[in-house]
Amino acid sequence: MTQPTPARRLDEFKPDARFAWCVTGSGHMIEESIALALRLPGVDLFLSAAGEEVLPLYGWPIPKLREHFKVFRDNSASSVPVGMLYNGDYHTLVIAPATSNTVAKCAFGISDTLPTNLYAQAGKQCVPGIVFACDTAPSVITQAPKEWVEVRPRAIEFENVERLARFAHTTVARSLDELEAALDQRLSDLKLAWNTSSS
């Protein structure tokens, strides 16, 4: 069996390299995820088409996002923004929140959206990735746009999360606390710190 290639060294990234944060079509912990992104130094947002539809339902239309982030939308068949990974512009890929659809695609090497394409290319570039998977417990209480609902993931969702967790250079977060801990560890690796203000 081929051994995984080591993660890229910090000196292989540009001095002003940033976090590439992908948002997919899940409303689960989406507001909390954006709040974490706001606390990080240097974040660009990459939205799937579904993510772009969902974000305004939770108070984050594109104009508001652009007040805080550079925003890339999923509007090219070849996912042109992915090329920035090859230039060393991004030291870390984050997908948060990640739908079960996105997790499944990443776990099986399908890259037909901007986030899944970024994940695939980050893997090929040995860029560390953090994926906040939504469907990780037998019962999940999540906030829909107008109410709280219970979601009961299927066995296939759990299997895909475990499959993805075995990928090189990938950290799968199964809760918001695990996402924050993974980001904290990455900041430590990069010798960076959380922002003291999200404004």
Estimate percent helicity.
25-40%
CATH superfamily: Flavin prenyltransferase-like
Order of helices and strands: EHEHHEHEHHEEEHEH
The geometry reads as: globular
- Arrangement of strands in the largest sheet: 3-2-1-4-5-8
Describe the 3D structure.
This protein is α/β, with parallel strands linked by helices and 199 residues long. It has a single domain, classed as 3-Layer(aba) Sandwich (Rossmann fold), CATH 3.40.50. Helix content is 35%, strand content 21%. The chain has a six-stranded parallel sheet, with helices on both faces. Helix 1 (30-39) links the parallel strand 1 (18-23) and strand 2. The radius of gyration is 16 Å and the shape is globular.
Walk me through the topology.
Elements (H helix, E strand, L loop, with lengths): L17 E6 L6 H10 L3 E5 L1 H6 L7 H4 L4 E4 L9 H4 L3 E9 L1 H8 L6 H11 L4 E5 L6 E4 L4 E4 L3 H11 L4 E4 L2 H15 L9
Parallel strand pairs: 1-2, 1-4, 2-3, 4-5, 5-8
Antiparallel strand pairs: 6-7
Helix pairs in contact: 5-7
